[in-house]
Amino acid sequence: MGIRWDVISDYMPMFLQGAVMTLEITVIGVLFGTLIGLFAGIARLAYAKYGLGKYLVAIFFRWPALLYITFFRGTPLFVQILIVHFAIMPLLINPDGGWLIAGDLAREIKSEHGALVSGIIALSLNAGAYIAEIFRAGIQSIDIGQAEAARSLGMTYSKTMRFIIIPQAFRRMLPPLGNEAIMLLKDSSLVSVIGLAEMAFAAKSAFGATSRVWEPYITISIFYLVMTLGLSVLVSWLERRYGKGDIR
């Protein structure tokens, strides 16, 4: 059975639009996921030596961070997308009285951007859980003497983390962060289940209209391959650029 090139050409604008949407939600998911992961990773490492503070830090920082990381690393992303879109979003954004947004604005967001918002939230939360562990491992890989030297100079904990620990740890975290970005790019295809018009949704639409399997799915496979190779090249360049001062 030969390839019908007309199917590819006819649906190429949809594939390109889906590719742009895939890149958008991946980039936004990685950015928000990195922010979430940074705070969750630091919360996992928070501690207090004595008294009541020891238990307060555990209750308000370490345990919530551990619960969040365990849940999002231990459950399928597919299920998380469904929970966010069908359970959480109606509570947050609802024309009849959402916790965050209500009225006409909520109605407009749900009708035009509901799937996009849900997809970004789910991808960001999932990525944040994995990135939190990357940050935790990267921070713990830095010799404790670095932090002790900073404190001996009068630097606060926040300044020590900001100027001493995290910049050094970041170089070691680049490879796993790059791998997480690539995984998120591929996993973004799961948001098609809630109707977000990314590449997998475009391929499914083309298949439904033409009953052709090879053309749409091979096409988006090539798109995914090009994107992942591009991300791999970018990560390799960042490793060479920022990893020069790392002592291994």
Automatic annotation (TrEMBL):
It is a multi-pass membrane protein. InterPro entries: ArtM/GltK/GlnP/TcyL/YhdX-like, MetI-like, MetI-like_sf. Pfam families: BPD_transp_1. Keywords: Amino-acid transport, Membrane, Transmembrane, Transmembrane helix, Transport. It comes from the Bacteria. Its main location: membrane. PANTHER family: GLUTAMINE TRANSPORT SYSTEM PERMEASE PROTEIN GLNP (PTHR30614:SF20), MEMBRANE COMPONENT OF AMINO ACID ABC TRANSPORTER (PTHR30614). PROSITE patterns: ABC_TM1. Residues 19-235 form the ABC transmembrane type-1 domain. Belongs to the binding-protein-dependent transport system permease family. HisMQ subfamily. It comes from Effusibacillus consociatus. It is found in: Cell membrane; Membrane. CDD domains: TM_PBP2. This is Amino acid ABC transporter permease.
